[in-house]
Amino acid sequence: MKETVYYQNLGTMAYQEAWAYQEALLKTNLEIKSKLRSLEQEKSTDDKPQTEILHTKNYLLFVEHPPVYTLGKSGDVKNVLINEMEREQKGIAFFPTNRGGDITFHGPQQLVGYPILDLEHFETDIGKYLRNLEEVIIRTMAFYGLKGERSSGETGVWLDTEVKGKERKICAMGVRCSRWITMHGFALNVNTDLDYFNYIIPCGIQNKQVTSLEKELGFKVDFTEVQEKVLEHFADVFNVDFVSLQ
User: Fold this and answer.
1) CA 197 to chain centre
2) At a CB cut-off of 8 Å and minimum separation 6, what does 149 contact?
3) pTM
4) How far is residue 62's CA from residue 42's CA, in Å, rounded to a whole number?
5) What is the spatial distance between Cα 19 and Cα 238, in angstroms, rounded to a whole number?
6) Strand 68-71 to strand 93-96: parallel, antiparallel, or no bridges (unpaired)?
7) 96: helix, coil or strand?
8) What's the alpha-carbon Rg for the chain, to the nearest Å?
9) 3-244 belongs to which homologous superfamily?
């Protein structure tokens, strides 16, 4: 039986606002889990109907952010190569976050996906979850004739991982999981202005390039089409049905 995932396209939204929205959805799911645990512990027949009604919800949010650098909880701020004044002059915000990973950039024409999934309805394996997210992007790239690859020991999706000096990352990933409920997610460079990556060491990885669908294909890609393809492959990989939220 397929799980239901509520899909919402947030359009362009400030990073902090989208983060707060994710946290609110996560909090609601955690509260439901706490209630379910209490009811199960009581083991009262009167409470059985309530346990059937209570159910965590899965979400997938799509968003574009105004220019922003975000730093993972284990990241090093030294991987930002410009000072605060220079960053502000360029109109780039900065936020330390509670996700995994190091420094990355979000900006216009980059498809950011935030799955808030209860992995107890899928598989309680964070490694498998990340590999599945990568698979969604790899399949999306294949639609455009590009071979997306995994890089050993490095999360995300790459091209030419076996060609030293030509390895380039097209999709960054960083997640947080609380009681098997996920947040944060992936950032796929579609028609992203890659100059912003010149001022950081992306994901804290030295001497590796960053790329985009536009750069690889040589033309601007239909952003809406990319969203549709990611949704299509997400549904296949995770075996879910989408319900659209306005």
Assistant:
1) 18
2) 138, 157, 158, 159, 160, 161
3) 0.92
4) 39
5) 23
6) parallel
7) strand
8) 19
9) Bira Bifunctional Protein; Domain 2 (3.30.930.10)
Residue with tokens 């030294």: 78
Rounded Cα gap, residues 100 and 182, in angstroms: 11
Q: Which residues are catalytic?
A: 203
Q: How far apart are CA 213 and CA 88, in angstroms?
A: 28
Query: For residue 157, how far is the Cα from the chain centroid?
Result: 12
Over the chain (246 residues), the average pLDDT of each successive run of 10 is 96 97 97 86 58 83 97 88 93 92 93 98 96 98 98 93 92 95 97 94 76 98 98 98 92
Taken as a whole, the chain contains a residue count of: 246
- How far is 178 from 129, CA to CA, in rounded Å? 14
* Distance of alpha carbon 116 from alpha carbon 10, whole angstroms: 14
Question: Look-up: residue for tokens 């790239």?
Answer: 141
For 130, phi then psi, to 5°, come to -65, -40
Structure tokens, 85: 């004044």
